[in-house]
Amino acid sequence: MFESSYHHVHTTLRNCSYQAGVIYRLTAIESFAFGSLISAVDPVATLALFQALDVDPILYMLVFGESVLNDAVSIVMTNSVLAFQDASEASATGVFAAFGHFLLMFICSSVVGVVFALVSALLLKHINLRRIPSLELGTVIIFAYAPYALAEALRLSGIMAILFCGIVMSHYTHFNLSPSSQITVQLAFRTIAFLSETCVFAYIGLAIFSFDHKFETSLILWSIFLILLSRAFNIFPLSSLANQCRSVKISFQNQVVMWFSGLRGAIAFALSLHLPFEKETRAVLITTTLIIVLVTIVVLGGSTMPLLKVLRSHYADKLTMSKTEDQGAAIDADDLELTEKLSGGKFFEVDKRYLIPFLRRRFTQQEVRDCQMEMQKMTSQWYSGVAQLPTSEDEVLQTEEALDGSADVQDDAL
Questions:
Q1: Cβ-count burial 356-365 (b if 16+ within 10 Å, e if not)
Q2: C-alpha span between 408 and 208 (Å, rounded)
């Protein structure tokens, strides 16, 4: 009786809204799928701006951590909803089944990623590959990709597996590598991430002219409004609740910036392209998602700098897009020691006392000296070419005159 009443009220309200032209008609499964995919935040522009500015490290960690975990949860939730797309209407049994499927995928995918990361840490701790950096790099890449492949083969979430694998590997496996391999791994993955983000945003830009769009103005406007409203109901109450248990509080200014950082991006658009709905509905959802992505990136991303200046007036003179003036003020996403200092708690005590000694290699004094010599050799090689170059305008002119003189001498000899 409760289910039939729910279906009757839900159908009546939806039909009335559709006839009034307020919203676009979507089934319950289509609505849940669209809500799941559009909740994936992608604050790439905001994080890039944070890296170039003197912002609060807590703010960077909160926005970065939320975006990474949020994307993975959004993908798993969307897949869980689409697994029940054959149902014509959402029932209480279907909702609980979808939620159970989501929890199963979330837990199993996380376990797969953590297991691979722990195995990689133990392997590189007990097997000495430090004198072969290329083999170290290949091992890290294999263990980083393997959980994704296995999770997809098991019909789990590959991105959830690789997310937790990356978190654990950066905390344990990274410190078992040689100094040269640590630098190489960081630069390699940052380069791959940069190229991937560039290709994805280029694809989003080309999608404006590549797809047959179907615009539903009411759906677009209501979606943008409800996205901002729901994010406000998410950020402010949960931040206030979290402050009751945190030693380092989340200030109201940081909460406003977190709310403003809810950009939509590649994940939401990619999920919309794989919706298995009817042609018209699919076109409407793809167009709506693309418009939301562009609006949030251009408007919210472009307004982040003025917002920071308004909220942080005492930082107004320091806010600049240059990182060369004070490199130490820039926030590094790999600064996990900062996270440990800010978080604390029993887990970090257990981690420091038991997990780190078990999973990280304990270097001897001779190995530490070898690492120092290796780093000095690397830096001397890097800067040897720089030291030979002229460092002032006078030296540049002298070098050019010397080159011209040698060229004249060669011409005279010929």
A1: eeebbbeeee
A2: 58
Q: Is 43 helix (H, G, I), strand (E, B) or coil?
A: coil
**At a CB cut-off of 8 Å and minimum separation 6, what does 268 contact?**
37, 38, 40, 42, 74, 289, 292, 293
- The whole-number pLDDT of residue 306 equals 84
374 by Cβ neighbours in 10 Å (0-12 / 13-18 / 19+) ranks as middle
Alpha carbon distance 343, 347 (integer Å) = 10
Query: What's the token pair of residue 159?
Result: 């991105």
What is the pLDDT at residue 149? 93
Distance CA 214, CA 352 (A): 55
Question: Could you report how far apart the first and last alpha carbons of the chain are, in Å?
Answer: 104
Low-confidence ranges of the chain (pLDDT < 70): 1-23, 45, 52, 54, 85-92, 94, 312-345, 367-368, 371, 375, 378-379, 381-414
C-alpha 288/C-alpha 31 separation (Å) is: 13
State the SS3 of 186-213.
HHHHHHHHHHHHHHHHHHHHHHHHHCCC
Q: Which of 40, 42, 43 is nearest to 304 (CA)?
A: 43
- Whether the Cβ atoms of residue 262 and residue 41 lie closer than 8 Å to each other: yes
What is the structure's pLDDT at 388?
57
The 10s digit of each residue's pLDDT in 272-298 is 888 888 888 889 999 999 999 989 988
Neighbouring CB atoms inside 10 A of 317's CB total 8
Exposure pattern of 223-248 as b/e (b: 16+ CB <10 Å)? bbeebeeebeeebbeebeeeeeeeee
What's the token pair of residue 148? 């994704």
Residues 6+ apart with CB under 8 A from 407: none
Question: Measured between alpha carbons, how far is 361 from 370 in angstroms, rounded to an integer?
Answer: 15
Which residue bears the tokens 């926005």?
Answer: 63
Tokens 């806010």 sit on residue: 319
Structure tokens at 326: 């004070």
Which pTM was predicted? 0.70
3-state secondary structure of 41: strand
CA pair distance 86, 283, nearest whole angstrom:
20
Within 10 angstroms of residue 255's Cβ, the number of other Cβ atoms is 19
Number of helices (H) and strands (E) in the chain: give both, helices first. Answer: 19, 0
Q: Nearest Cα to 213, choosing from 280, 275, 283?
A: 283
- The tokens describing 158, both together, are 């590959």
